[in-house]
Every structure is written in structure tokens, then in C-alpha cells.
Amino acid sequence: MVTTAARYIATAFLGPLLACGTALAAETPAREVKIENFTFAPQTLTVPVGTTVTWINADDIPHTVTAEDHSFRSKALDTNDRFTFTFSTPGEYGYFCSLHPRMVGKIIVKAAGN
Question: Which of 16, 41, 74, 93 could form a disulfide with 83 if both were Cys (CB 3.0 to 4.6 A apart)?
């Protein structure tokens, strides 16, 4: 049986902490791109400057992650392999799989405060 005092403590102290955790989770952008069924998901990802993005190959065949402007390029990623890149400059970074050029994606990097 929960006492009134226990309910008060839970509401007064845990409630704001839980609400804060929920708010932080909602504001944190996704930082992973899944490669599956010959697609990048999400296809477009918006992140703040300084974010490290990780691509994970969930397909049974190799794929690459290759920037259109040549700013980054992975090796051929086998199943469950990962590639990471840290975006230090704002801008839009289109990329594709060099083995399957119809596979395309974009990372949009926003400056602090935007």
C-alpha cells in the first residue's frame, strides 16, 4: 500500500526528473542511419554541428557510404559493419552507395543556435 507521503515524494521529486528525461530524449536528434533493403533510413537526417553519425549495414550484401563532395567515404560495409563520421561544418552533405548509386541520403548539419 502506497502512503500519501510516498505519493508526494514520487510526484514532487521523480515527476520533474521523468519529464526532463522525456524532453531531452525528444530533442536529441537521431544519430544513426540504418542501411536496409537498399535504402538509407532515415534518408535525410538533420543534426547539430559536432554530431557523429553512424551508418549500420543491416543488409546481407555490402554497401558503402560515399559523400558527393568526397568529404567522407567508407570501405565496403558487410552485414552489421558500421561507419562513423563527425560533422564539424554546417551544410548539406549528400551521399550515396558507390556499389548501388541509386541509394542516396543527405545529412543536414545546422550551426549552433539554428
Answer: 74
Q: Map grid coordinates 556499389 to a residue.
A: 99
| Average pLDDT of the segment spanning 33-40 | 98
Distance separating alpha carbons of residues 32 and 52, to the nearest angstrom: 9
Q: Which pTM value belongs to this model?
A: 0.73
Task: Report in angstroms the alpha-carbon separations of 46 from 41, 93, 99.
Answer: 12, 10, 25
All structural domains of the chain with their residue ranges: 1-29, 31-110
Please report where in the chains the cell 554546417 appears, as a residue: 90
The predicted structure's pLDDT at residue 30: 56
- Model confidence band, residue 112 (pLDDT cutoffs 50, 70, 90): confident
The H-or-E segment that residue 107 falls in is: strand 104-110
